[in-house]
Amino acid sequence: MNRLTGENKRRSIEFLSIRGLYGRKLKIWRKAIKYLVIICALQFTSTVARGQIVMGLLFGDKLNSDELSFGIHVDYGLSRLSNISDQKSLSSVNLGLFFTYHFNQKWHANLEMLAKLRKGANKLQPYDLGNDSLNTQFIDGDVQRRIGYLALPMTMQYQTGNFFFELGPLIGLRIKAEDVFSADQPQGELKLTRNIKDETNVWDLGWIAGGGFSIGKSKSLSLGLRYTGGFTDVMQNIDGRQENQQWSIYTNIPIGRAKAAAKKAKANGQ
Fold it and tell me: Any idea where the Outer membrane protein beta-barrel domain is (predicted)?
């Protein structure tokens, strides 16, 4: 009888421990989703660069924990369009937010929100502008194609030591698209900007593959290199497919992690 009673107590303790663990994880996810909704709303109403930094400072300590990492994402990208032989890479610096959930020491889910991810190509050949005078002025020039996206890169990361590998999809919503014509004239450089938003696809679907290494005891600060390929034909009215391609070097910088650790220590009475 005593043996059965002891066994029942042990099972009860295990059940309560498991329920407490999943209850705590559910609470973390609810809090994360709550603040991510607020952040997304603020991204649409704030000046992009300033707004994202302010949001990181405001919510960093609330979203950083043992399971979660939150902060600023910065990358330097070189973009091209597929199936175009005569072009140069378009360089850009992109700023956003990142959110990483650590399932365990090996597997992490990473989500980034980039309010203005720039893609496109540089040094394209000029095309017919429908105006003989403009065509004459830019015939010896070149075109820089700039396409801006509200983008959500999502990757699963596998950590081994300080190094990690990542793979996942990217979803982009086109918010701006323009061709910038440039030509050297005797009186100086001549420029013309043409809005091509209606000539590009609204959605950009792609894939990400890359790797990098993590820094620090918590391994929340990371540096990485990734390649982003495209599934979507970028241009609507051009024969042949043109997909976005981009190489980028990036860093994810946690914000508010020290403050979050101090709050946890204080709550534990340390």
Answer: 82-235
Can you give the pLDDT at residue 28?
56
Domain ranges for the chain, please list them.
49-267
The alpha helices in the chain, defined as continuous H runs, are 2-45, 48-63, 132-138, 257-267
6-15, 148-157, 227-236: least confidently modelled range: 6-15
pLDDT tens for each residue of 136-190: 999 999 999 999 999 999 999 999 999 999 999 999 999 999 999 999 988 889 9
Which H, E and C letters describe 145-163, residue by residue? EEEEEEEEEEEEEEEECCE
Would you list the DSSP string of 106-137? Answer: SEEEEEEEEEEEEEEEEEEPP---S-HHHHHH
Return the CATH number of the domain spanning residue range 49-267.
2.40.160.20
Return the pLDDT at 69: 87
Name the DSSP letter for residue 197.
G
In this structure, how many other beta carbons lie within 10 angstroms of the beta carbon of residue 68?
A: 20
Single out the residue of 194, 175, 174, 192 nearest to residue 183, CA to CA.
Answer: 192
Residue 197 amino acid letter: K
Q: How high is the pLDDT of residue 9?
A: 53
pTM, two decimals, is: 0.75
Residue of 179, 191, 175, 75 whose CA lies nearest to 121: 179
Is 82:243 a contact under the CB 8 Å cutoff? yes
